[in-house]
Design brief:
Order of helices and strands: HHHHHEE
Strand content: under 5%
Number of strands: 2
Number of domains: 2
Number of helices: 5
Helix content: 40-55%
Mean pLDDT: 79
Low-confidence stretches: 61-68
Shape: elongated
Strand order of the largest sheet: 1-2
CATH architecture of the largest domain: Orthogonal Bundle
Distance between the termini: 63 Å
CATH topology of the largest domain: Arc Repressor Mutant, subunit A
Structural class: mainly alpha
Radius of gyration: 24 Å
CATH class of the largest domain: Mainly Alpha
């Protein structure tokens, strides 16, 4: 397949009066740059289209198998206390309306002495648990936002 592509590429270069290998390489680099730009534009459009779908009510949650190592079936009242506290505080930070990334959340929870900066695993579990239950989501700027099931977020009234 690459042989056919190479033959076709060289033929196209010759048609466009790019006869030296140096000119052909520069043209190939130019095309790669063009394709990279197109891919970035397409990624941006894809993110915007997902936003449109979500805003128009057509949002479909991601399939369970995308969250392979996390059991989202654990009900909020069965979460370990430290995860419950993390989930509640993550939701409080999002509710405050700040534009926060996962890194921002980590910094704020560290400042509150709820996690150590090296303790990514617990934080990511809490965020994945919340997003897997559609309580939180990410916008196209990768900021954490309220999800479709925001009203089902865990609160301090945990039952034992």
């Amino acid at each position: 397949m690459i042989g056919n592509f190479l033959t076709e590429f060289i033929a196209k270069c010759i048609q466009e009066d790019k006869n030296s290998t140096n000119e052909m390489c520069k043209y190939a680099e130019f095309r790669v740059s063009e394709i990279d730009t197109q891919l970035e534009e397409l990624k941006s459009e894809k993110a915007n289209l997902y936003s449109v779908i979500r805003q128009l009510g057509g949002y479909k949650p991601k399939p369970y198998n995308e969250y392979k190592n996390i059991d989202f079936s654990i009900p909020a009242d069965k979460l370990a206390d430290d995860y419950m506290i993390l989930c509640i505080n993550i939701c409080k930070l999002i509710e405050d309306g700040s534009n926060l990334t996962i890194s921002d959340i980590m910094d704020k929870l560290s400042d509150m002495e709820l996690i150590d900066l090296e303790d990514n695993e617990r934080l990511y579990f809490a965020i994945k648990w919340l997003s897997g239950r559609n309580i939180i989501d990410k916008d196209n700027n990768m900021l954490l936002i309220k999800g479709l099931d925001w009203d089902k977020r865990p609160n301090v009234f945990k039952t034992m």
